Amino acid sequence: MRKTTALRAAAAAAAVLLTATACNSRRGQDTAQDTAASGACKGQQTTGITDSTIKLGGIYPLSGPASAYGTISKGVAAYFKYVNDNGGIDGRKVEFIVRDDGYQPPKAVEEARRLVEQEKVFAVFQTLGTPSTAAVWDYLDKQKVPQPFVATGASVWGTDDKHPWTIGWQPNYVAEARVYAKYLKDTKPNAEVAVLYQNDDFGKDLLGGFKKAVAGSGIKVVAEESYEVTDPSVSAQMASLARSKADVLLDVTTPKFGSQALAADAKNTKWNPLHIVNNVSASAAVLRPVGFKNVQGVVSATYFKDPADPQWANDPDMKTYMNALHKYAPDTDPANQFNAYGWAVASSLHKALDAMKCPTREGLRDAVRHLKDVKVGLLLPGVTLSTGPGDAFPIETMQLMRFKGERWQLFGKPVDTRKEFGPLTK
Fold first, then answer.
1. CB neighbours (10 Å) of residue 91?
2. What is the CB neighbour count within 10 angstroms for residue 235?
3. Rounded Cα distance, 341 and 163, in Å
4. Residues 6+ apart with CB under 8 A from 136
5. CB–CB of 152/103 below 8 Å?
């Protein structure tokens, strides 16, 4: 059976681009100065890091169909500006360079090459999206450049053993699917589920994880519809799913299509399923265009504190975040969850950099894979970073939330999917 995935397509696009520009790459390497450590860390790479600076690069869709995610880079940048004004990371000031790939894998490859060969970054921190990350990880692995905490929950970042320089951060999509499966088992054990999903490894990963998690239970997937990121809308898919009369809609979408699906669900008053929207489309920025009154009762899951939730108003870490966003990114909305995501992942990298045994690329590569219950300010209580031999998933605990009024409200207890379902393996 022939199977073509977004992961393979992205890798193929990357290979073509890299081959076509190989000569230019060699010229860039010939003229660039890479550096290595001495002493106890002798031979390890120190390109992009000095006693006083660290240069990092990030690749985000500042334009294109996933541009809603672009603001994550502002949360990251605000964190590093805040840290720089407070002594830096172990005395080092951070330079954070942001590139736009428009959510296009070939463009991501171009930008990764610029960051590595021209900017000489210490690490490519954050490539956003499964296709873009897949397009560049072979190149970064070959260059031995860390690619820590990629902004995608594809399970491959934790199960693959051939790319030691790449690791995820957020809960993987299978772990998230497990949380929804447990919720339905507990509350709607005979649910009939309709699924809208993005036709790439992101969508297939979460859908596959959900099916496996409900296998053997009374829960059945009775309808599936996919969409392409180039599609103008998902209205036809939503109309088809409505005909299934399923009592649950599992919405596996990126922000643009998440808004469309929520709007279509609200418009169709003859079909009223429990609407579960995946975390990557759970931002209030996605729900607001639909109208908050139209998304009451929608369910999702999260792992970090919602800046719009008043229960965190007096939380010291939230206060620091809010004040820093107002100061360092005055054109952004601190209540936007994507900005909080950026702050949380940047502070997680800070913890990993602090944990390096050697201030080298190899030191960072190893540090992110040996985290032990590391606490990060904006993560929910009970959620920590943990990795180790055979477990390259930093976060696998999530808590359910329901939209009520004008914000999400947490309910239930955090679900540690490692304990609940066992480790996720290849």
1. 9
2. 14
3. 25
4. 14, 59, 108, 109, 112, 124, 127, 147
5. no
pLDDT tens per residue across span 271-316: 999 999 999 999 888 999 999 999 999 999 999 999 989 999 999 9
Pairing of strands 299-302, 397-404: antiparallel
The letter for the amino acid at 196 is L
Q: Are 274 and 305 in contact (CB under 8 A)?
A: no
pLDDT in tens, 135-189: 999 999 999 999 999 999 999 999 999 999 999 999 999 999 999 999 999 999 9
pLDDT tens, residue by residue, 199-242: 988 999 999 999 999 999 999 999 999 999 999 999 999 999 99
The structure tokens listed for 413 are 């207890």
Per-residue pLDDT band for 390 (boundaries 50, 70, 90) equals confident
**Alpha carbon 271 to chain centroid distance?**
31
Q: With left for phi above 0 and alpha for psi between -120 and 50, is residue 284 left, alpha or beta?
A: alpha
Q: Are strands 274-277 and 220-227 parallel, antiparallel or unpaired?
A: unpaired
pTM: 0.85
